Amino acid sequence: MLHGGVSVDRATRPGAPHPRRGAAASSANERREPSTGPGDDRRDHPLNDEVHFIAVNYRGSSALPAYLRSLREQDSPSWRMTVVDNSEDRQETRSLIDIAGATPQVKIVRAPRNLGYFGAAHWLTTHEDTVPATWTVVSNMDIRLATPTFVTDLLNLDGGAPVVAPSVTAMPSGRAQNPYLVSRPDQLAMWRRRAMFANPIIGQAVVLAGAAKYHLRNRFTESSRAQRQAIYAPHGSIIPIHRRFFLAGGTLAHPVFLFAEEINIGEQCHRRGLAVRYEPSLKVIHQEHQSTHLLRSWRVLRAQGEAARYGQRLIAGKLPRAGSPLGTPADGHGGGQHDNRGGPMRARSGTG
After folding, report:
1. Whole-angstrom Cα distance, residue 72 to residue 69?
2. What angle do CA 225, 286, 309 make, to 5 degrees?
3. What is the count of structural domains for the chain?
4. How many CA atoms lie within 13 A of 124 on its CB side?
5. Where is the composition biased (Basic and acidic residues) (predicted)?
6. For residue 234, which of 133, 139, 135 has the smallest C-alpha distance?
7. Does residue 83 sit in helix, strand or coil?
8. What is the domain-level CATH number for residue 175?
9. What is the tens place of the pLDDT at every residue in 146-200?
10. Average pLDDT, the chain
11. In 10 A of CB 201, how many CB atoms?
12. How far apart are CA 259 and CA 241, in angstroms?
């Protein structure tokens, strides 16, 4: 159920038991977090052993069939999907509902306005009255799971690293997008990024130059990334987040409309002592730039500059201390797309 008086369209009836597992199986999959001692407010909190995919849409309904196909091919039924439609277009919402069809595990929700990428995911998780999933996967629409064991493999992880970075292959370039940031960027790197994106024209040139660089780069250098390892931040196209992140005070609240979601998540984990891990066994295909494109609108370029300023101030310690919310979500007024890719920050991840 969603609360708050917003307009909602659904592909499934709210409150219905999981049709593929049945009411009994659904109940069996629901358990309670063990008590960690007197006064622990989690001991009576029901838990749901499934993966909840939150896909944020901005006029990207054409990408949904491939994503859904990869979910339907999973060897485990322990998943559900919510598509949050930011498009502010009833016809786009209707297209999403038609594509979802009779798939009982899929729900289409229309956002009250264009909330941005993390803004939409945060809105959903704070308005949805459902049992928390073991893993919440926030993603773009232009994603498809590359193996039928993605859900099983993710549920087999114990949450020791509450945020994981799957192996993401960008298409059509074929380059690896994770690990995105192996180490925490220093203040000088963030100042350079802020300076480059302060001017929208220079920012556009940086995006195009970055795309050319990765197109020309030798793909054999990607083989060094096969190892499972601790990293600072995952690529924002798809981020699996364990419930432990939220129980530790983590949040999807994001104070800027677009971009810098990776720094937000990485810094929250850094400040709270939570691990982030690259998991190459989790394989994903990302058909990137289906929303923003390489030639970006003036509004998106301005959002990129705002995000660069936010990231620099966050790393410099000029935003709230560890344990405090990193900010409130942007109000999301105005258009824009929500595929957060591009920029020189990838050089910090060991990609060149």
Report:
1. 5
2. 80
3. 1
4. 29
5. 29-46
6. 139
7. strand
8. 3.90.550.10
9. 999 999 999 999 899 999 999 999 988 888 999 999 999 887 776 776 677 666 6
10. 76
11. 9
12. 18
Are the CB atoms for 256 and 306 separated by under 8 Å?
Answer: yes
User: What length is written for the chain?
Assistant: 352
What is the sign of the dihedral through the CA atoms of 66, 67, 70 and 71? negative
Assess if residue 7 is contained within a domain: no
Residue 9 lies in a domain: no
DSSP secondary structure of 177-217: --SSBSSPPPHHHHHHHHHHHHSHHHHHHHHHHHHHHHHHS
Tokens matching residue 10: 């659904």
Distance CA 166, CA 285 (A): 10
Q: Please name the residues in contact with 291: beta carbons below 8 A apart, sequence gap of 6 or more.
A: 58, 59, 60, 140, 141, 142, 337, 338, 339
Domain enclosing residue 198, as ranges = 22-35+42-349
Residue with tokens 């109940």: 27
Percent of the chain exceeding pLDDT 70 equals: 62
Reading the block at residue 222, the tokens are 């990607």
Both structure tokens of 294? 């390489």
The angle that helices 200-216 and 298-315 make with each other, rounded to 10 degrees, is 80
12 is a domain residue: no
Taking only the tens place, the pLDDT of each residue in 68-121 is 999 999 999 999 999 999 999 999 999 999 999 988 999 999 999 999 999 999
Structure tokens at 111: 């956002």
| Number of Cβ within a 10 Å radius of residue 154 | 23
CB–CB of 118/90 below 8 Å? no
Query: Do the domain assignments include residue 336?
Result: yes
Other beta carbons within 10 angstroms of residue 112's beta carbon come to 16
Is residue 179 reached through a cis peptide bond, with omega within 30 degrees of 0 on the bond before it?
yes
Look at residue 120 and give its three-state secondary structure: helix
